[in-house]
Amino acid sequence: MLPLFISQIAGAQTTQSITNPTSVLSIFLSLLVVVGVIFALAYVMRRFNVTAMGSNHMKVVASMVAGTKEKIMVIQVGDEQHLIGVTSHNISHLSKLDKNLEVPLKGTTTNGHDAFKQKLVAAMAGKLNPQTNDNKQKEDSNNA
């Protein structure tokens, strides 16, 4: 009878230790520390671009959407360029390109991007300053 009574007291003490406010606070702070470490590591990985370390040998030169989940991509491996088809479940080698496409350098933009940028700036200038847009239209009509 005595061992049963002692085991019931021991079970009651362990239950009380979980509901103890300092124990709950300790568990909560431990959880916050773990979540904080995870976010800190994610920040460091993003800041120093750890995921793109081995990308010197393989680059995506061009990409085009062919459907909702399909893409056609040109990748460069070393000095060779390959045309591949990418779906959600499969990657297929379509062809090896005989003539390599130009690889845009980082920090430079192609003519398509520059043209889009100029059109966007002109459209935004017209919306932000409608008087300047109206004046341009008047000048164009006067010159014609």
Structure characterization notes:
This protein has 4 helices and 4 strands; from the N terminus they run H-H-E-E-E-E-H-H. The radius of gyration is 32 Å and the shape is extended. The protein has helices at 2-19, 21-47, 111-128, 130-143; strands spanning 58-65, 71-77, 80-86, 91-96. A 4-stranded antiparallel sheet has the order 1-2-3-4, with no helix packed on it. The model has no long low-confidence stretch (mean pLDDT 75). The chain has 144 residues and is of the alpha+beta class. A hairpin with a 5-residue loop joins strand 1 (58-65) and strand 2. The relative contact order is 0.05. Helices cover 53% and strands 19% of the residues. It starts with a helix and ends with a helix. Among the domains are: 19-53; 58-97.
Q: Which helices and strands appear, and what pairs or packs with what?
A:
Elements: H1 2-19, H2 21-47, E1 58-65, E2 71-77, E3 80-86, E4 91-96, H3 111-128, H4 130-143
Helix pairs in contact: 3-4
Provide a count of the helices: 4
User: What do the pLDDT scores average to?
Assistant: 75
User: Any low-confidence stretches, pLDDT <50, length ≥5?
Assistant: none
Please provide the ordered H/E string of secondary-structure elements. Answer: HHEEEEHH
Query: How many strand units?
Result: 4
C-alpha termini separation: 111 Å
Whole-angstrom Rg: 32 Å
Into which percent range does the helicity of residues fall?
40-55%
Structural class designation? alpha+beta
Question: For the report, how would you describe the main beta sheet?
Answer: 4 strands, antiparallel
Strand order of the largest sheet: 1-2-3-4
Strand content: 15-25%
Shape: extended
